[in-house]
Amino acid sequence: MGNRVAIVGIGHSKFGKRNDVSLNELAWEAIKAALDDSGLSQKDISFMSVGNFGYWSEEILPAVTVAEYAGIKCGSLRTEAACSSGSAALKIAYDHITSGSGKIAMAMGLEKMYNSPNSTIIELIGRAGNYFWEFENFGLTFPGYYALYATRYLHDFGYSEEDLCEAPVKAHHYGSKNKYAQFQKEITVEECMKSKYVARPLKIYDSSPITDGAAAVILASEDIARKINDTPVYIKGLGNATGSSYLGKRDDFTGLEAGRRAAEIAYKSAGISDPKNSFDLLEVHDCFSIAEVMAYEDLGIASKGKGLNMLKEHQTYHDGKFPVNPDGGLKAKGHPIGATGISQAVEITKQLRNEADPGRQVSINRGMALQHNIGGTGHYAYVTIYSRGD
Amino acid sequence: MHMLPYTQEVIRLYKEGIFFDARNLELKYQMPVKRIEKFFEGLEKGKIFATRCNNCGELYFPPQMDCPVCRNNDMSWEEVSGNAKLETYTIIETTPTSFQKYGSYVIAIGLLESGVRVLSWLRIDDFTKIKIGMNIVLKTEKNDDGGYTYIFEAP
Questions:
Q1: What is the pLDDT of residues B23-71, one digit of tens each?
Q2: Among A83, A167, B26, B137, which one is most buried in terms of CB atoms within 10 A?
Q3: Chain B residue closest to A199 (CA)?
Q4: Gap between the Cα atoms of A36 and B60, Å rounded
Q5: A54 inside domain
Q6: Nearest CB to A248; choose among B96, B116, B149
Q7: How many domains would you assign to chain A?
Q8: Segments forming the whole domain that contains residue A103
Q9: For the complex shown, is ipTM > 0.90?
Q10: Which of B94, B117, B131, B151 best probes binding to A when mutated, by most A CB atoms within 10 angstroms?
């Protein structure tokens, strides 16, 4: 195959409100774990990319402060692709190896959102679209973006808000089994329905939380991967796309066009023709309940309008036909913006290695998994396909 | 220089293990709109303008003075009818701090007769009367701050 790239080390911090640590200390939790997992040392790494959205935390050169704290001296950069900044970091590290620039790279993601008050966070994240024509004049919030999709989806396909609440119920179920998750307790549809509206029809329980967190992966080229780790997880294909910044430029409010395009490119690059029968698990971008449902459809796992039905029928639980987010997803595990894409990669690696906790380890038969990471509301889209390669 | 806690609030946070930033950063951007000033002049006169490429005919809203398809800046200003159909909407209940004085508000996306879509507020007394596909009209108006804006209304 030539120049394949594999994940040979993973690290993950506890997600949540992490006022017990600084930005650099939080990053170190993930970096140290990834180094330990791989058995590599800092000087083996020839490039490091850091997915970070920032603004709410004080450092504007986080790649530099983190590298120094972690004893890393190779070239580095920070990547921004909103909530898919982590996947963008992964792509840069992947490209570093496939281009032949180096053999080992680290991609990490990091966010320290609680370094600012909630009001500042709402103000900042509402700008993640087209600033002047949406936020400045009309105060569109981030939940508002997805609510515009939720309204139309429920209308067109005849579902209710109760139906949407099935998404957080599943997420919290798996969060309760994941020691790294921000939320560790189960919830019910009734509790979800009673929660406060943030942007109708979406409620607090339809929404992922504000989270501090870090995650790291170490990538290596195929010729050395197996010497580092006996269960390397290969990146089999990638696809990415950019959607319009202004929502008025879009003609479909029941799915994310950029997500569909990214999936199509990823499937082509991985040689996948039947996504319904290819993966042992999917990690999808469920920043809001509606986002999870649209992901099923945009990825071709569910047909148009049937995604929510698939969730209601529990087909996407860990023991269902299409396991999705057995780590609790963005909703329950937490959504530290720049770390989310790397956290998904860590979870997929853990699952493909059969190392996930009891009660959420999926059955690994095909040895393949998919990661779907969206920035903004389909403003950025990254789809990555992984294979155990055995 | 402040290295040690110095006010009540800072001392309180310090006891919780947090160092409270002593430096303030105010972000207020200065955004050039010179090339699309006709749009804002139009609002004052009750008109909503888009731009059209004189070469390929593409209509742009928000207005822009460069056509990326033709790679030229040969654009005309074109008034668009406000008649629209409601494509989707949301009611913002948790508002950004800078919008708190307005209470809850409806954000809508309408498809105008000219074929462009516009995102704006929708003014309607009874939120339960909002229906996807309903006819709405985009109008200009002077807002409380003395500036001009555009807003959808249900007839």
A1: 888 889 999 999 999 999 999 999 999 999 999 999 999 999 999 999 9
A2: A83
A3: B92
A4: 53
A5: yes
A6: B116
A7: 1
A8: 5-117+210-228
A9: yes
A10: B94
